[in-house]
Design goal:
Strand content: 25-35%
Helix content: 10-25%
Number of domains: 2
Strand order of the largest sheet: 2-3-4-1-5-8-7-6
Number of helices: 5
Radius of gyration: 22 Å
């Protein structure tokens, strides 16, 4: 057994409202999980979930274990109660999150157990391997305060925010890998195209509007771009240094025949 917190679940009445609240409060990335009927939460430390229709619920913390069944047996031996979540309608898909059990200690206080997903091709007791991803992209800018105002406003509708700053450097992200690093330079380089994934078409619309209000220049109003694929909905704005910043929402799998085309 390990025992460190590895997952949490928030139950609320209206999950869409809670998504806006907690995303605005903490800058969490909160993405829909249609198969589970709720949302997946990404924080700087652990993942979480959110579901609606649960008035009066309290946040539930799940503690990591290597072997879920063995941990449940131990809970019962110590006078507690343990129930697996496989048969529950609100359980997250195992392939995405792992396996869970709802428990109560010997005094009736609730908690959860969480066995992380198995690594592909390996034993069930090993943690899942992370998929490769881009770690960060760096932009050199002439006016750091102006860039900060622009990106703080433009990225907020996309659940991205300022993670940290240090001696003329700003880092924007969601608490996970994939940061945008901006630092002041007397020799800024313009002409970069940076595209951010948006959770909805409405978020693309908000991105475009607030980016213009924050000093950006229009480079393409929100709308479908069928030349890329049928569900490609994007908007484009030049940042204060002339870099092309995009927000895009995909509603269908991309048509791979367009991979050779450039997007603006």
């Amino acid at each position: 057994m390990t025992g460190e917190p590895t997952f949490f679940e928030i139950g609320v009445v209206d999950a869409a409202r809670a998504r806006a609240f907690y995303g605005g409060l903490f800058g969490w990335r909160i993405e829909p999980v249609p198969s589970a009927g709720g949302y997946r939460i990404s924080t700087p430390t652990i993942s979480g979930g959110m579901h609606g229709g649960d008035e009066g619920a309290s946040p539930l913390v799940f503690f990591g274990v290597v072997d879920l069944e063995a941990a449940m047996v131990r809970v019962r031996e110590l006078g507690g109660h343990a129930e697996t979540l496989e048969s529950r309608a609100d359980v997250p898909q195992e392939g995405s999150f792992g396996r869970f059990a709802l428990c109560r200690d010997d005094q009736g206080s609730p908690f959860g157990l969480h066995q992380r997903p198995a690594a592909e091709g390996k034993g069930a007791r090993e943690p899942a391997a992370h998929k490769p991803t881009i770690d960060h992209i760096t932009l050199r800018v002439r006016d750091l305060p102006a860039s900060r105002r622009f990106y703080e406003a433009a990225l907020a509708p996309l659940s991205l925010g300022l993670e940290f700053e240090h001696e003329g450097l700003l880092a924007f992200g969601s608490g996970e890998s994939g940061r945008l690093i901006i630092y002041a330079s007397e020799r800024p380089v313009a002409g970069f195209h940076v595209a951010f994934s948006a959770p909805s078409r409405e978020a693309v619309d908000r991105f475009h509007a607030v980016a213009l209000e924050a000093g950006g220049r229009d480079n393409g109003a929100p709308g479908l771009r069928p030349e890329y694929h049928a569900g490609y909905y994007g908007a484009y704005v030049f940042d204060p240094d002339g870099n092309n910043v995009e927000a895009v929402h995909h509603t269908v799998p991309p048509d791979r025949t367009h991979d050779g085309q450039r997007t603006r």
